[in-house]
């Protein structure tokens, strides 16, 4: 089918409006090609990455006024019920906006980090980073499971060289675990789940309210839902979480990409997308098909939090914190009601802003002091007040305390658990918050209030400090502007 015919058949407002979807994916790809073309001129190479990032962010923001207009682009059909389709809807646009807005900030940070630490292969780094953003936008705007699966695999393959970037034996091992676990889960579990869905529903297209209602019994839907959630390895549920701590051998900007900008957010976004647009929240609620996975999410949330408390390596502690916080979003999907789903979606943005701040702070500390252990940070807040002030802000946001963005997502999750009558999950959510307090807050406390172990340290370079201050301010902005994010999502969640 030609593009104009496809537009007319879909009843779109205009070809130009829907063509914005592939254009947004093309911009980071073009940015990546520019990076390669300018590889011998580092300043221009990094400027190209920044310009592409700013352009992508601007495109994401420009799409919000038409987020609920149903823009869809169906390019071609491969098999009956399986097509290459892109669509614009609020949940996908939220994920795309997180990736788009954080890309230029992370690029600015990466300039200071990669140069400050004399990292090799910087052109390769910026190219694969751009490719990962393009894959994330592909996932965000996918109109069906088949299209999403392509982007999901490209994201894995494009981030693997970044995980193994350092090239030492530890990095290679981390890269092998990363690639092995994510490809094994996606090909061995997620792909069969997609095929099974196509057989049951006759389509892989996403639809508000889901496509599986009335297609199978409770046992079948329960098994299928488990296949999806374990198959979406990027969501890092136990026992398929080891790739995430193992990937911490990568440079800090890559850790920020994995934890906040693209990879894990692609995982939990896909979990929410499957719950809302494939199964349907009502179907999950009526059949109880999500309940077994609810307990898996609860075990992951508590278990990863307990492990985080025991870790002295700062990046490793933050990695297990991510595993725990991702489980909040998976738990939101399994609670199977509109309130929890809205809280889970909002937590994607809140956790992204807070966790990228925490990793930026960890990288700034390493670049300025060469310190990596929590036990080494005593008194460092006096020398690096901006860095540890931002760390405190992000920690409080993850705790869910006002006036920071995590307040609203944690509140909605608690309301969603209460609405579902899940008293045990209320206890899990509250216990998770106490664990967050235990593994995050002592870090800025010891940095500001303990006597310094050694003198001579000073604040990191401005290219590292400015990004972490901006992302800390984003935590505040998400508290003030949460309704602007939630309102378009509620229109979808409340639709029959």
Walk me through what this model shows.
The structure is a single chain. The chain is 73% helix and 3% strand. It is an all-alpha fold and 496 residues long. The chain folds into 2 domains: 1-282, no CATH class; 290-496, no CATH class. Strands 1-2 form a two-stranded antiparallel sheet. Mean pLDDT is 89; it is low at 1-13.
User: Which H/E pattern describes the elements?
Assistant: HHHEEHHHHHHHHHHHHHHHHHH
- Helix content class: over 70%
Tally of separate domains: 2
Number of helices: 21
- What would you call the structural class? mainly alpha
Q: Count the E strands.
A: 2
Radius of gyration (CA) equals 21 Å
Kindly report how far apart the N and C termini lie.
31 Å
Order of strands across the widest beta sheet?
1-2
| Shape field | globular
**How is the quaternary structure best described?**
single chain
Largest sheet: 2 strands, antiparallel
Parts with pLDDT < 50 across at least 5 consecutive residues: 1-13
Taken as a percent bin, the fraction of beta residues is: under 5%
Mean pLDDT across all amino acids:
89
